[in-house]
Write a structure and sequence with these properties.
By secondary structure, the protein is of the alpha+beta class. About 20% of the residues lie in helices and about 30% in strands.
């Protein structure tokens, strides 16, 4: 069993992934089986009905459905169907650990509560990195399914099992990164995704499905508000409170999907997606006198299929975009490339090929390292679940290499999409759905800590005990008054997040500027530790404990003074 570490000083992030097994109608809860006593029944049954209503609207209302189901749960916590519905709402929203509790209880109460109970358990275990348990549940589900239904689910179960196997390999070699939520200034309780960062790293445009006004409308597909474009700029280390872009781009009300997909290197062109529930196209808006013009269609790249995201090279001569063109694609949405000719006209778009594209969906292209690295998300290749972020390198002969998974914890069994990297490659931004989020999909900053530094062994030839030349004095320098010790003592403790038991672990503090470990401590049998630090600044924190996943995060001591007591917990 993979365990998780709870650090009192720092916040926890948990893995999730998107709904891949949609259900339109809620599982029927029978009135006569739900009723236990007369007192409280009427209100509880109304809560069941309200929960069913919101659940039937789509995934955008699962949290509301869950609140009503939990109220009904207070009346009858032993109804198998109600436990199933509560667990399912958790599973496809924001707490996979809770989903297991309710789904497993539903199974214990009634093993045949629903035909897909083992599939739901498998998906829940999958999302919290319990890959072996997930595979066990997936196999049980498919092996005990009626033969006439087995063909319908076989390919999907095979995919999930392969994703679990991929996940075991990726999670065993975690990357040295810290992943931080951008906070309430940018993110909300609704979905935020698709960050587009300017070359100087000071401006960000992104897409949100938040409620903007009383006139904001919801999509009939998932009961979430339509997409809209927001803007934020960097103020020191903090992104400013996001503002909705002007009405020439967003329209007067949220009645259709308007998403940002790209920004030109000179920040003068903003690329936009506009679409409805059926299809969408790419548009471009130009900055004139500080205002964005009404978007114009990029007709050269648009088709009768949906074109959903894009990026452009630094010299604006090559354009990469995502299209659902079924005739030219390998399956799902693919990456296409168009190049400008000597006359400055865009050439006919070409599929990027089956080294990059797969039978599954690709999404969210971006470029890095002087346009020599292509980043994108895919449900194919060696994904560990949902969309994973991959990178491919351009060779000297103009061919893209086999995509490499960016690894865990950047990628999770949830959807991890719209990755964009800074020019120096030390930080990146992307969208993910994690338990540390504010609700739905949020935008995160990735901080790369660099390679772990090896200890250097030094040779000491002239030892004190065997000095070649006798010393006149035991001191090697004149006596002087010692300076006051100005180091900072940081204290904390480490617990298991599930049972609160203390953990013996190694804690390393990493100087991000020099990419090196500057302090190390070992927590004792009570989980307590203390470590001295040379100055108040931001440090990377790496925690390693036997039987637990590697933990990485950032601790910000930059606002602390030397004489201030700082005892987190």
């Amino acid at each position: 069993m993979i365990k998780r570490i709870l650090i009192i000083l720092l916040l926890i992030e948990a893995v999730q992934f998107s709904s891949v097994h949609a259900q339109v109608n809620p599982l029927k809860i029978k009135r006569r089986e739900f009723k236990k006593q007369e007192y409280g029944f009427k209100d509880a049954w109304l809560n069941v009905k309200d929960g069913n209503y919101f659940f039937s609207l789509g995934s955008g209302s699962y949290r509301e459905a869950r609140e009503y189901y939990l109220k009904a749960y207070g009346y009858n916590p032993d109804n198998a169907e109600l436990n199933y519905m509560v667990g399912r709402c958790y599973l496809f929203t924001d707490n996979k650990f809770e989903s297991i509790k309710y789904i497993k209880k539903a199974y214990d109460l009634k093993p045949d509560v629903n035909f897909d109970i083992h599939l739901m358990l498998g998906m829940a275990y999958h999302q919290i990195l319990e890959f072996d348990k997930a595979i066990e549940e997936y196999n049980y589900f498919i092996n005990n399914l009626h033969p006439k239904f087995r063909a319908k689910y076989q390919s999907q179960i095979d995919l999930y099992i392969q994703q679990c196997k991929n996940g075991k390999l990726l999670a065993a070699q975690p990357k040295r990164v810290v992943i931080n939520n951008l906070g309430k200034g940018v993110n909300s309780i609704y979905d935020e995704y698709g960050p587009v960062i300017s070359n100087d790293g000071q401006e960000m445009y992104f897409t949100s499905r938040r409620k903007y006004s009383k006139k904001s409308e919801k999509s009939v597909l998932d009961d979430k508000y339509f997409e809209d474009v927001y803007y934020s700029d960097l103020d020191g280390e903090i992104w400013s409170r996001a503002k909705r872009l002007d009405k020439k781009i967003t329209g007067r009300a949220n009645t259709t999907n308007i998403a940002v997909v790209g920004l030109s290197p000179d920040k003068q062109k903003l690329y936009i997606y506009k679409g409805d529930n059926k299809r969408g196209d790419l548009y471009v808006s130009t900055l004139k006198k500080g205002l964005w013009t009404k978007p114009k269609s990029l007709s050269k790249f648009n088709s009768k299929y949906s074109e959903v995201s894009m990026c452009i090279s630094s010299d604006e001569s090559v354009l990469y975009f995502i299209s659902g063109n079924a005739k030219k694609g390998y399956g799902g949405t693919d990456i296409y490339i168009s190049r400008k000719n000597s006359q400055g006209k865009w050439g006919k778009p070409e599929n990027a090929g089956n080294v990059i594209n797969t039978f599954f969906d690709e999404l969210g292209v971006s470029l890095g390292m002087n346009d020599s690295i292509l980043y994108f998300s895919s449900k194919g290749h060696n994904s560990m679940g949902g969309y994973d972020v991959f990178q491919s390198t351009l060779s000297n002969v103009g061919l893209w290499s086999k995509p490499q998974n960016l690894g865990y914890p950047i990628n999770t069994p949830n959807d991890d999409v719209f990755y964009v990297v800074s020019p120096d490659g030390k930080t990146a931004y992307y969208s993910s759905n994690r338990e540390s989020g504010l609700g739905g999909m949020d935008i995160y900053k990735i901080i790369y800590l660099g390679a772990e530094k090896a200890l250097l062994a030094g040779d000491v030839e002239d030892l004190l005990a065997g000095a070649k030349i006798p010393y006149d004095d035991i001191y090697f320098s004149p006596l002087k008054k010692l300076a006051v010790d100005s180091t900072i003592l940081m204290r904390g403790f480490i617990n298991d997040s599930e049972n609160q038991r203390p953990i013996i672990a190694k804690i390393e503090l990493i100087d991000r500027d020099r990419s090196m470990v500057i302090a190390t401590a070992i927590s004792d049998s009570t989980g307590n530790y203390s470590v001295k630090l040379p100055e108040t600044k931001m440090y990377g924190v790496e925690i390693v404990a036997k039987g637990y996943l590697l933990y990485l995060d950032i601790v910000d001591l930059s606002q602390r003074t030397y004489d201030e007591e700082f005892s987190p917990g």
